Amino acid sequence: MRLVEQKKLALDGDVNAKLISWKVPANGFDKSHPVTLRGLLSMTAGIGVPGFLGYGVDAPLPNLTQILYGVPPANSPPVTVITQPGSAYAYSGGSYEIAEALMVDTAQAQFPDLMERLVLKPAGVSNSTFAQPLPSSARARP
After folding, report:
1. Could you tell me if 119 and 2 are in contact, meaning their C-beta atoms sit under 8 angstroms apart?
2. Does any domain span residue 48?
3. What pLDDT does 135 receive?
4. Which range of residues forms the domain containing residue 38?
5. Does 32 reside within a domain?
6. Which residue has the higher pLDDT, 139 or 112?
7. Given 3-state DSSP classes, what are the helix, strand and coil percentages for the chain, each rounded to the nearest 5?
8. DSSP letters of 55-87?
9. What's the CA gap between 97 and 102, in Å, rounded?
10. What is the mean pLDDT of the chain?
11. Measured distance CA(30)–CA(69) in Å, rounded
12. Does the pLDDT of residue 141 top 80, yes or no?
């Protein structure tokens, strides 16, 4: 929402207009209603992949594009539109992966750095991170 406030993103624009590293694959479900940031955030974008299994501490981690395409080392299927955007609510972790790609592509910054600058620091949070894998200095914390 900080990027919306800064007018770098729009809630109701087609996300594919701003995505650079990956595009939401067109498949007919999105023909009359594009995938929007509002839909992604409200879980009404019609995006599949409801959740993710996670990865072991020492397992290879996929990058965001591998997760979106569903290719190894990702352990989830590709993120796609599975129903007409705006037609129903359905929880979707895939929606948040697209939102992450949209933020990263728009801000041209790594996600952990972006979240530090836009969320954690303004909130006065100094003992948290979005870095993956978790830095060893943070692993020892209770």
Report:
1. yes
2. yes
3. 83
4. 1-108
5. yes
6. 112
7. 35, 5, 65
8. --TTSPPP-HHHHHHT-TT--SPPP-B-S-TTS
9. 9
10. 94
11. 18
12. no
11 belongs to a structural domain: yes
Q: Could you give the CA distance from residue 34 to residue 85 in angstroms, rounded to a whole number?
A: 7
Split into its structural domains, the chain has a count of 1
Cα 118 to Cα 59, 86, 106, 113, 125: the distances in Å are: 29, 28, 13, 9, 11
CA distance 78 to 128: 29
Handedness of CA 63, 115, 8, 12 (dihedral sign): positive
pLDDT digits (tens, 9 = 90+) for 3-59: 999 999 999 999 999 999 999 999 999 889 999 999 999 999 999 999 999 998 889
Is 48 within 8 Å of 102 (Cβ atoms)?
Answer: no
The pLDDT value recorded for residue 57 is 82
The answer to whether residue 120 sits within a structural domain is no
pTM listed for this prediction:
0.92
CA nearest to 48, candidates 104, 96, 14, 10: 96
Tokens describing residue 132? 């993956």
Report the candidate in 46, 32, 39, 48 with the shortest Cα–Cα distance to residue 12: 39
* Degrees, nearest 5: CA angle 38-40-42: 65
